[in-house]
Amino acid sequence: MGKTAYINDQLFEIQDGETILSFVRRHIGKDIVPTLCDAPNLDPFGACRVCSVDVALVKDGPAKAQASCHTPVIGGSFIYTDSERIKRLRKNIIELVLTDHPLDCLTCEVNNNCELQTVAAKVGIRDVRYPAGKNHLDKKKDLSHPYMTSDFSKCINCGRCVRACDEVQGEMVLSMAGRGFDSHIVKSFNDNFFESDCVSCGACAQACPTSAISDVFESKSIVADKKVRTICTYCGVGCNLDVAVVDGKVKSIQAPFDAEVNQGHTCLKGRYAFSFYNHVDRLTTPLIRKNGKLEPVSWDEAYDFIADKLTSIKATYGPDSISGISSARCTNEENYLMQKFFRAVIGTNNIDSCARVCHSPTAMGMQRAFGTGAATNSVIDLNYTDAIMIIGANPTDAHPVTGAKLKQFAMKGKTTIVIDPRRTEIARYATHHLQLKPGTNVALLNMMLFYIASSGLEDKKFIESRTEGYDDFKKQILSIDIDQMEKITGVDRNLVKDAAMSYAKAPNAMSYHGLGVTEHSQGSYTVMLISDLAMITGNIGRRGVGVNPLRGQNNVQGAADMGCQPHQGAGYLNSYDPEINKLYESFYGRKIPIGKGLKIPEMYDASIAGNLKAMWLMGEDLVQTDPNTTVVIAAMKNLELLVVQEIFMTETCHYANVILPAATFFEKSGTFTNGERRIQRVQKVVEPIAGTKSDGDIMVDILNKMGYPQAPYDPDTMLQEISKIVPFFAGVTWQNLAENGKQWPVLPDGTDTEILHIDTFKRGLGKFHYFDWKESEELVKNGKQYPYIVTTNRELEHYNAGTMTRRTGNVDILTEDVIMIHPQDAATHFIEEGDMVCVESPRGKVDIKAKITDEVKQGVLSTTFHFPDLTLNMITSSERDSEAMCPEYKIVAVNIRKSKGKYKEKV
Amino acid sequence: MSKNLSDLARRKGLEKNLFEELGKAAVQTGTPELDEMAKLCDEFLVGKSTVYGTVSFYDFLRPENKGKKVYVCNGSACLTAGTQTELKTKLRSKFSAQEVGEMCCLGRCHENSAFHVNGTNYSGSDIDSIDSICKKDHHTKELYHVGSIGTPILTIAQPPVEEYYKIYEKVIATDPLVCLAELKDSGLRGRGGAGFSMAFKLESCRNVEDDMKFIVCNADEGDPGAYSDRYVMEQRPHALLMGMMIAGYITGASVGVVYIRGEYPESVTIISDAIKLLHDKKFLGNNILGTNFNFDFKVIKAQGAYICGEETALLSSIEGQRPEVRVRPPYPTQKGLFNKPTVVNNVETLANLPFIMQNGGKKYASIGTAKSTGTKLISLDGHFNRPGIYEADMGTSLRVIIDELGGGFRHPIKAMHIGGPLGGLVPLAKIDSLTVDFDSFAKEGFLLGHASVVCIPEDYPLIDYIEHLFRFTSHESCGKCFPCRLGSTRGYEMIDKARNTDYKMDRQLMDDLLETLETGSLCALGGGLPLPIKNALKYFDSELAPYFKK
Ligand SMILES: Cc1cc2nc3c(=O)[nH]c(=O)nc-3n(C[C@H](O)[C@H](O)[C@H](O)COP(=O)(O)O)c2cc1C
Ligand code: SF4
Ligand code: SF4
Ligand code: SF4
Ligand code: SF4
Ligand code: FES
């Protein structure tokens, strides 16, 4: 036994460095010592003092009252949790609190769910003896915000909200103001929630022990029929959510503190943006286009129609005239079924997923460098690293919960390298911001690699024992022309050198990248250079290091894992390899195609060329989200059959022959795999609204309909099937995923893997690649005539095309897309804040409202595409990554001018 | 306290820091404008609420300070001297009601009638020259006695700088561990109130490995009635500065921060000038006098908040955070200013170091008592015949101080409030059982504290005085912990009501309140208030009885 101390005269073991509170709670129970200002995810604060206990250093010796939440246990001490004096103290403190608290519990939002109420009852307070005095009872409610609410007459000044906003979200919207009795919570400059800088993460509301800060859903206090734990459907962070259900409806969402992914935190999308699920716009019946009009039909009619059509198209044009695109928003099981349907039933490898348009270069590049196209490490590794490099990613908007953790890291002043054309939120706090010209990632990374290779900071041992190709690589990298690269990137070489040195010298360094890396013509190359950086510095295979793509969508990892790409079947097995083909054939009991399948951009080309006749989309809005809309529409129009599974009538639906109303993530079970390879359980929270079916049910129906017997959709049985064919799912079962999921590869005995490539790479040795920087064709062809570059970005409040988030309160927070313009550029074109700007590319033009900011450099513009009105993809190009065919969303050559005509009115 | 804010402040450093910038932004109008604050948020990477929260904390930054032109002292000494009502009347002939603010103790407790105009303090008969003061052609005629009994350390005349700094030259040529050993031998205890061993603090800080450490001088002497730190800064600045430099040498810190209360504008000027002189003499900078010791100073002028004298609040203040008291651990010596190892010591404590280094720790320890070594400065208020600053060996009897140094009382008094607002209320009958040292006061149920003496005249109602103490605490409470934030105000309200209406206080409730403050408060502001109140209830029971229910 290590160090010990007594609690109420009983001896217990102390954990190193623990507080009296945690010591007592661990050994004799959570509710023994009351607290008000303490919270599980916040640092001790010591404000309320009701956690006080008596501590004596010798038995029956003089005792001192100590606040247990922040006082470490002393070995051999005698702790008394409920001495008479302590009971009196607690009661007297609560009495004081109640002198400035409305006594209207019965009508309070959090009645029966209020920590103050609980503690007051526990200490047995009967009446308040003080004469009436100053108070804060006249504070007005703040109902200005679509989600956040406050009623500071209920505030007990515990400071939990302030700390949540600071320590968890890192936003510092809340503070105490004034002092002494006058102390009160303010938002920003004493604004209301709506005017404040609040990003609506809800951490403060969840932290607040009373109803002083809450939300419109009354998340804290809702008395639910049941609470179901599931996984957020938005981004690849994969936050766990506790969903409260009343009368079969989703009422509110909270974040479980024990979730390994998000530890009680979420962003506003996960916590508040759920009302889309039963929005009136939901599709509730299958539709078939008859005489040019979509008409409601029964499921049977829809299935008959589809089956007939597919059979005849297949008979006439062959299986390769049909293609499918699955969705990274759907579960692993659904994705698996869709690729199974295409391969085993249709007989084509023409199956792709939206991973194509975001992280396909990551998969490609990392597979070539390491052998596995997935994050090498976990988010928790942030606690063990000394330096981070964030390239082409804006996590505080796109991956908010991980973004908040990265921001916390950067705020501490630890080495943070941001490589981004935009001064992103984290760039503000970064120690190094390399604000390069869009499209020059390769040049910039080459510079960094040059400086590391030429300064002797390589990890020679690692390179020697774990990698191949370094000598060639080194020769090439040392021959780059730094002068030229400096000009190309527009970044001072000394800044680049400093950053490279910091990365190389850090004992442990992690890199994170996003779509600013992948959505370029040299996307896969960039990923391989990032891998080079990790290898040259030996930052692979242990805690706190690695290459960590921030996967965009909730299940973009899973869609690829499950085989929704033409060249790789379930489990990344090469679908063009005859041996593997045999394996698939015996597993599926059908003939499995071996011929090359189409990637998404190739599908458009094939349709326009008349070779592709039918397309099946599972939850994809190609027209809105894929680049060069004109081309996409032409491709859609040229099809004989377009089947769309959707929850809403999207832009793409307008071109569909058949629409199948699908269910949302609340209405089904399955698994999502987050950006750190964590397979987590999505659990059905409510029944699908009438008329809809889950994508899994739809796939099972059509498999059966077209002659392939498939058991009813059920994640448990599906995982049994998947674990037999996907090697890294070998030990996955629905039961053993439990609360916090498992990170693949999962061995047959169920052990999972936090860190990849510990002793060897998946491909044996890690491979160095060198690439010359090459100007994007878009700029080569059009740069002269269209001298500005538009790059695309995302805003926190909306998710991609906004199909879901625009049908929630988020739309009241962020109402439109804007284009960021440097003040100098704005001046050149006489553009003022809020003016409509006509942005014209070789392909078309759009009008967007100007936001003048030095977040972007001169010559660079940045905009979002969350609102369909904008049709930004009218101007984006068909350029794509040379390897993975991921579209180049991040570079569009444009010209700008102040809008004329109808848009002028809008100003 | 926010770790993030400490780390963000560290990045910006001391040279241009948020707290000072807010002070500058308030100079014109008395409070920073919002657009000014917004710019600072951007520059210092903090939230708007952060800056708003900070600004609204300080007397001289908060929006209510807007338009104030003259400040009248409302400290205990001026209060019991009864000079301030007349002073205010006189000032009102020159200033409108909105232009007159309050300040708590300008360190002119020896002659009272203290007020502050245009960044300068005045007292005594200065008010009679208010016209010239407004025209800025009046110099204060302030005068106080300085004297000693026993071994003068801080009241002895200071030699010329070159000569005096020979001590320093010797120190930085000596092994820091040897210096630390001398300090240990000296037994020096903190003079800021708590009497904590200085050597222990320096040693813990020294033992933390870090290339950034700080020596912070707590010159926020907030106790109304105390002005001995002010004396040291203005009359013996080099004792303090050299003390900090030596502390830096011992701990491995290369930056000293002198945090001086805004109510002492003259101290700020004198200390800043003294630092300039040290630069000229090459006693500061890098590789000082050819050694590898580096040291430099930063002077920070505070903005009016008593709690900033509490060391952790003080650190947050320098960082531009709200000066709310922090929980311990971590202790400042582990994670102090900017989350870096920091020693915080009082002015007087630090000013003793040169003597100890010059004469040896044992010599110092031979002065005073076994547990309270050395001397103590004592501030006597205007009720004495010879008000001023006196230095006495620890252990000197209180009677000697009062009669021989102070020359006795000018008029009948009934009690002395010794050791600041949180010190004990000593009835005259207790004088002979007290000697000036930590233990004697503690044994008798009082507190030596910073050893200021504020007299309560015979005719001054004690109920008024305890109301003043509660009001002071409720005004100065940082508001963080529940007992003090709520309790100080409720206590004030009760007494106020009992004083002004026929409401009678419930003794049980008062006892409960005092117990709650004493055992529950996070720091010694809320925790210390009960001491003088309990003294009052004990020694002046009959005077206070009418205000309580029978
Ligand atoms: C409410 C409060 C006010 C204080 N004010 C002062 C002060 O004005 N000056 C000071 O030196 N110490 C003050 N202290 C004590 C400091 O917290 C700290 O103990 C002291 O600066 C340590 O220095 P020392 O060891 O040299 O005394 C105060 C403490 C409290 C709780
Ligand atoms: S919702 Fe989040 S950002 Fe907004 S105030 Fe609360 S904690 Fe801060
Ligand atoms: S709003 Fe809630 S969390 Fe914030 S201080 Fe008040 S009671 Fe505590
Ligand atoms: S961070 Fe991502 S996963 Fe988490 S709540 Fe937000 S959108 Fe959902
Ligand atoms: S006792 Fe008063 S001053 Fe001290 S921490 Fe508590 S509220 Fe702040
Ligand atoms: S100057 Fe007024 S109390 Fe000290």
Topology of this structure?
The complex is a heterodimer of chains A (907) and B (550).
Chain A: E1 4-7, E2 10-13, H1 20-28, E3 52-56, E4 63-67, E5 78-80, H2 84-98, H3 115-123, E6 141-142, E7 148-151, H4 160-169, E8 174-177, E9 184-187, H5 203-207, E10 213-215, E11 226-231, E12 240-246, E13 249-254, H6 268-272, E14 287-290, E15 293-296, H7 299-317, E16 322-326, H8 332-346, E17 351-353, H9 360-369, E18 387-391, H10 395-398, H11 400-411, E19 415-419, H12 425-429, E20 432-434, H13 441-454, H14 460-466, E21 467-468, H15 470-478, H16 482-489, H17 493-505, E22 509-513, H18 515-518, H19 523-536, E23 546-549, H20 556-561, H21 578-588, H22 600-608, E24 614-618, H23 622-625, H24 629-637, E25 641-646, E26 658-661, E27 670-673, E28 678-682, H25 695-705, H26 715-725, H27 734-737, E29 742-743, E30 766-767, H28 777-782, E31 788-792, H29 810-813, E32 818-821, H30 823-828, E33 836-841, E34 844-852, E35 860-863, E36 892-898, H31 902-906
Parallel strand pairs in A: 1-5, 16-17, 16-24, 18-19, 18-22, 19-20, 21-30, 22-23, 24-25, 25-26, 31-35, 32-34
Antiparallel strand pairs in A: 1-2, 3-4, 3-5, 6-7, 7-10, 8-9, 11-12, 12-13, 14-15, 14-26, 27-28, 28-29, 31-36, 32-35, 33-34, 33-36
Chain B: H1 3-12, H2 18-27, H3 34-44, H4 48-55, E1 70-73, H5 76-81, H6 84-92, E2 100-103, E3 115-117, E4 120-122, H7 130-134, E5 145-149, H8 161-164, H9 166-171, H10 176-186, H11 198-207, E6 214-219, H12 228-235, H13 237-251, E7 255-260, H14 265-280, E8 296-301, H15 311-318, E9 342-346, H16 347-351, H17 353-359, H18 361-365, E10 375-380, E11 388-393, H19 398-405, E12 413-418, E13 424-427, H20 438-443, E14 452-457, H21 462-476, H22 482-500, H23 507-520, H24 524-528, H25 530-539, H26 541-544
Parallel strand pairs in B: 1-2, 5-11, 6-7, 6-9, 7-8, 10-14
Antiparallel strand pairs in B: 1-3, 3-4, 10-11, 12-13, 12-14
The structure holds flavin mononucleotide, iron/sulfur cluster (4 copies) and FE2/S2 (inorganic) cluster.
